[in-house]
Amino acid sequence: MYYQVEKLDGYYRISSLEAVYCYVIVGEEKALLIDTGYCYGNLKDAVRKITDKPLYIVNTHGHCDHAGGNAQFEECCYIHEKDIKLCQEHTARKMREDNAKRAACSVNYETGEIFDALPEEFDLEAYCQMNAGKLKSVREGDRFKLGGATIIVYETPGHTEGSISLLYKEKNILFVGDATGTFVWLFSYETTSLNVYVKTLQKLYELNAKEYIGGHNPTPMHREDLLRYMQAAREADYAKGEPFESFLSNECKPRVCALDGMTMADMFRPGFAAVVINEDKKFVE
């Protein structure tokens, strides 16, 4: 099976070869799917093997690796209104074609290995005909009641204007998508200022969750990690950064600004934290 499913502390993690994670929370009455990934495989089948309960679907933001599978589902996909247009752009044909091409020559950044992340049965034309799904807006304070499990929406802009995080209230676990992490992209047109991103980090810190679960993190983040991410954002200096190539934007030349003189070669070392910014991004006290 293309997707791997793990049962963790009150939720399921669905992983795929391109290191993108989707999450399923199952309540007594309903279930909720957080993000739909690139969706090169049959995500709907993977979810339905976990639960057959009525399903909510929520995108933490509109990027292709978090909303690519929306169209596999009949249900509405909830997303912040500020990311609806972005989601439509990132699930359009051209983006899908480019994604699939890159996936066929994927790189493991930890080992340098090149591999094909597409499943054997992948149908490019069928994939490119998919769209953004049935989008429905969501905002701060909205709640999804699953029966014994309550999911609360928090607006956490930075990586995109409409990024949201989802608090599993009963477990005090916060699913943050790409809102923060050790390597946050803040350089394309849909990202915010560094000041807004730092305010989001402060908000996440004040929520004091037991664990912070990211869209690409194999292990949970914790509250003390956010202090390091704040420091990386506050001290980011484009002039001292390491050049970075990205498929998201050809209009700027982003650079990686990491703590303590680290570089991308240190990405998997303990204590690594970085933001990827363009030339006009500066933190203003």
Secondary structure blueprint with pairings:
Elements (H helix, E strand, L loop, with lengths): L3 E4 L4 E4 L5 E6 L4 E4 L8 H8 L4 E4 L5 H4 L8 E5 L3 H7 L2 H11 L2 E2 L6 E2 L8 H5 L5 E5 L4 E3 L4 E6 L8 E5 L4 E5 L5 E4 L7 H14 L3 E4 L8 H13 L6 E2 L11 E4 L15 E4 L8
Parallel strand pairs: 4-5, 5-6, 6-9, 13-15, 14-18
Antiparallel strand pairs: 1-2, 2-3, 3-4, 7-8, 10-11, 11-12, 12-13, 16-17, 17-18
Principal-axes shape call:
globular
The appropriate CATH architecture is 4-Layer Sandwich
In spatial order, strands of the major sheet run 1-2-3-4-5-6-9
CATH topology: Metallo-beta-lactamase, Chain A
Oligomer: single chain
Which blocks of ≥5 consecutive residues have pLDDT under 50? none
Report the average pLDDT across residues: 95
Helix content: 10-25%
**Which CATH class is shown?**
Alpha Beta
Number of strands: 18
Verbal overview:
This protein has helices at residues 43-50, 64-67, 84-90, 93-103, 124-128, 194-207, 223-235, and strands at 4-7, 12-15, 21-26, 31-34, 55-58, 76-80, 106-107, 114-115, 134-138, 143-145, 150-155, 164-168, 173-177, 183-186, 211-214, 242-243, 255-258, 274-277. With 285 residues, the chain is α/β, with parallel strands linked by helices. The chain has a single domain, classed as Ribonuclease Z/Hydroxyacylglutathione hydrolase-like (Metallo-beta-lactamase, Chain A). The strands form four sheets. Strands 1-2-3-4-5-6-9 form a seven-stranded mixed β-sheet, with helices on one face. The chain has a five-stranded mixed β-sheet with strand order 10-11-12-13-15, with no helix packed on it. The model has no long low-confidence stretch (mean pLDDT 95).
